[in-house]
Every structure is written in C-alpha cells, then in structure tokens.
Amino acid sequence: MVQEQEQRILGYFIDEANDHLNTIEQGLVNLQDTLSDSEMINALFRAAHSVKGGAAMLGFDSIQQTAHRLEDYFKILKENPTIQIDQKLESLLLKVFDTLQELIKHLESSLSLPHEVVSDLMAQTEPIFTELNNHLQLLAQTSERNADSHNHNSTFSRDLLPVFQSQVLQRLREMLQLFKQPETSQSRQQLQEHCQQLLQLGEQFQLSGWSKVCEAASRAIANCDNNYRTLAPVIIKDLKQSQELVLAGRLNEVATTDQLKALSANKLHR
Predict the structure, then answer these.
(1) How confident is the model over 219-235, as pLDDT tens digits?
(2) DSSP assignment letter at 159
C-alpha cells in the first residue's frame, strides 16, 4: 500500500513537472517577448519554483538544484527588465532547461534517478552554469552602465546576489555533510573540489577577497594533519561570514581570518 501511494505521489509530481516544463519552454523560446510580459515572466518564475519545491519534498536533489538555478535566473530577469536578451543567453538557459527536462524524463520512464545518470548530466551542465553566470553578469553590468547606475566601487553586480547566495549555500550544505563523514582521501578531495568551485564563483563575479578565503580553505583541507573536527567550524564559519559581507556589499571587509590562515599555512606532510 505504501509503495502504491509513493508511486501515486511520484506520478502527480511528474505530471505537474511536465506542465511546468511546457510553461518554461514556451517562455524561453521568445525570451525577449517574455521579459516584456510581466505575467509571462512571473509564470516562468512560479513554474521553476514549483518544480524545485516538489523535487525537494521527494528528495530529488539534482532536479531541485537545476530548477533552483532557473528560478534564480528568472528572478534576475524579472527584477531587471532592462537587461538586453541576446541569443547566447537564450541558448544557455535552454541548455539548463534541457538538463531539467532530461532528468524528469528519466524519472518518468524508470521511476528513479540512478546516481550515474545524475552524475553524468550534472557534470555536463556545471560548465553551462558557469558560462551562464559569467554572461548574465556581463549583461547586468552593461544594463547598469546604460542606466548610469553602475557602482564604481565594485565590479560585482548586485543583480546577481540571488545566484551567488543560492550557489554558496548549496556548496556549504554539501561540505557540511562531507565533514560529518569519515576522514578519507576521497572526502578530502570532494571538499577541495567544493572549495575550487566556490573560488571559481568568486572569479566569475570578480570577488578577489572571497576567492582568497576559498583558496585558503582548500589548502587547509589538503593538509591531512588538520582533522575534520578542527577544520569544519573554522571553514564553514569563515565562508558564511564572507558570504554575508558580500551580500551586504561590504566587499572590502572580506578577508581570511587568522585561524584559517594558520590552518592553511601548516606544512603538508606526505
């Protein structure tokens, strides 16, 4: 009975997700027209939000994360209608949509999302997220300059704060889970990869202070003399505080703490 109920709930989610996918696809095909129609851009935002919520409830992290990215991008477009849509932006958004559609199609056909399928799809999509972040940053800055409202104290466009915030939070959650696992070379490598992805995020948004904090965190994790119990509170706290400073626009205050510097400066032992 429980299994039948779970399958029924899954069926409802898939049906609703397909409806939302249709809404998103229609809006992306003519994105410039969509952007000029407040109802349509709101519909795209709600569709991505609904898929994200349903996937989170059922534990489909890959669908949740991909829908969340789309939701963030739609929010930026919704709140900044002066951004000029170009073919590259449309193409990149459609590629992210294709990933979301592929995940849901696989779920519909097999009623599951095997790790290898998810891993391959997300590995292919991660560079698209990076390129999309970079391009949207460029378009947002151009829009600000054209409106004579660009902040000359920083090249970081505040329009992209939701993207930065959600991506950092996602990485921090995953790092916390890894810190709770046994200390192995594999988990250390995964932690370092998360730090590198956070560093790349800083480079995309031209946040030099943030990138230095992430680099120091990666070096500290690489040192096997630093155990997880010591690393976790320092690294998570430093990254959270640095993120809060970025979100508050206090970019000049983002810096590596003495504690993290000490952990990252320790000599590595073979």
Answers:
(1) 999 999 999 999 999 99
(2) G
Q: Which two tokens stand for residue 197?
A: 């992805």
Domain limits at 170? 159-265
Contacts by 115-123 with C-beta closer than 8 Å and gap 24+? 118/62, 121/62, 122/62, 122/65, 122/66
Domain assignment of residue 211, yes or no = yes
Residue 268 per-residue DSSP state: P
H helix intervals, 30-114: 31-35, 38-58, 61-79, 87-110
- The amino acid sitting at 185 is S
CA–CA separation, 206 and 211 (whole Å): 9
Q: Is 246 exposed, middle or buried (0-12, 13-18, 19+ CB in 10 A)?
A: buried
Amino acid at 51: V
pTM of the predicted model over 0.70 = no
Same domain (yes/no): 246, 131: no
Q: Examine the domain organization and report whether 32 and 110 are in the same domain.
A: yes
Q: What are the two backbone dihedrals, phi and then psi, of residue 125, each rounded to the nearest 5 degrees?
A: -90, -25
